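User: Structure with adenosine-5'-triphosphate, tokens only please.
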Amino acid sequence: KKQFAVIGLGRFGAEVALTLAANNCDVIAVDKDEARVRELADRVALSVELDATDEKALREAGVQNVDVAVVSIGENIEASILVLMLLKDMGIKNIIAKAQSRMHGRILYQLGVRQVVYPERDMARKVARGLIMPEFMEHIELSPEYSIVELPAPDAFAGKSILDAKLRTDYGVTVIAIKKQGLDKGGKELWNINPLPSDKIQSGDTMVVLGANGDIERLRKISP
Amino acid sequence: KKQFAVIGLGRFGAEVALTLAANNCDVIAVDKDEARVRELADRVALSVELDATDEKALREAGVQNVDVAVVSIGENIEASILVLMLLKDMGIKNIIAKAQSRMHGRILYQLGVRQVVYPERDMARKVARGLIMPEFMEHIELSPEYSIVELPAPDAFAGKSILDAKLRTDYGVTVIAIKKQGLDKGGKELWNINPLPSDKIQSGDTMVVLGANGDIERLRKISP
Ligand SMILES: Nc1ncnc2c1ncn2[C@@H]1O[C@H](COP(=O)(O)OP(=O)(O)OP(=O)(O)O)[C@@H](O)[C@H]1O
Ligand SMILES: Nc1ncnc2c1ncn2[C@@H]1O[C@H](COP(=O)(O)OP(=O)(O)OP(=O)(O)O)[C@@H](O)[C@H]1O
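Assistant:
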């Protein structure tokens, strides 16, 4: 069973620790702030107040035995680098760290962090994209060239089959799913996954479409 | 042409402002910190140093004319609430705000914020999910019941057609795309979007699969 250490219990670290613990993972959560440590006390395997730049304290908490370490100790770039070096010296190979800035992230990568995360930057881009392309309810970049978007079925397609709406022929996109308005008797969403070309699109449906970015862009113009 | 105001230029706000501006949007960026304001000065339409709780200052900067306001002013919950009320009084309907905590988010929603974002919390869940389900390179929750996952083609399927691999019959999942290893002559990725059942899966391929969560879960067990 894998063991995890989460170092730094800010908004990011605390949520990582809690999500892992909620999925039955073995988590050692550490922070120098006593209140944050206490907040997690009965929700993770072990929650310890310590300064993560103190190697002895880390070892006493058992951090050297973990398989994965997630480091998110905020403003102090110097401290995060020190902690990273201590973890590497302990032989922990899989280290994930939250970066404060691009420069911080570059340093972390060069020092061997396997995954650097930029939560604020990534969400900011997602939010901005939603403002620039409000026709789409969701926009997932599958690759630099292909995206999956969710959009309300345009009026022009209401009552037509997917084939008659000519989504593949005119727009070059594939409808991978249709979500019907409303819920079924059990309160669950009504999804038509991998719909047939003969399936009809109805007003109120949400369409989930996969296509090349240029084609997706053209789809925006027919909304709503 | 839509006008945007971004209030608070921390990691989130600054990136929202820059992404909007890079897409030709008209952005008024404000912050009380002169260094952060200067950082954006030649990259957005207007970058102003001001205290966003000062209505007169907001009006002088032209904020009352924007269509959308993004508020991300950090630690000070009281200040963010004051700013929100000022923006509402100015008649700005589309307000997006970054929340510091769940409680902060609830207050913002009740006060009429259209979209509350939790960048650290959402990214933390994504990172944790990647650690819990390392078999998947990417995991997108399409809905509470359906997900799209990206995974390396399991050895068991190498050389088989999608039909022979029985992904639909045995696992109940749909292969919506296959990414081949390597790049084409132009340096672009090699994608087979909406592959045919007769298309072959090869070792080194990345499969993009859509299915119900329970079926996706079973797919984890055959990796790699
Ligand atoms: N040397 C250290 N040892 C242990 N914990 C530390 C150390 N330095 C900072 N921390 C803790 O790291 C946590 C995260 O720091 P901070 O809140 O400044 O970062 P942040 O990146 O803004 O966090 P988030 O965005 O995830 O809320 C804090 O709880 C802080 O107490
Ligand atoms: N009253 C105010 N008027 C204008 N700007 C403000 C005000 N209060 C705070 N700010 C600015 O808001 C910005 C974001 O604040 P802070 O960095 O504390 O939040 P944060 O949520 O940790 O940010 P992020 O996670 O996006 O980096 C700061 O640049 C700060 O100067």
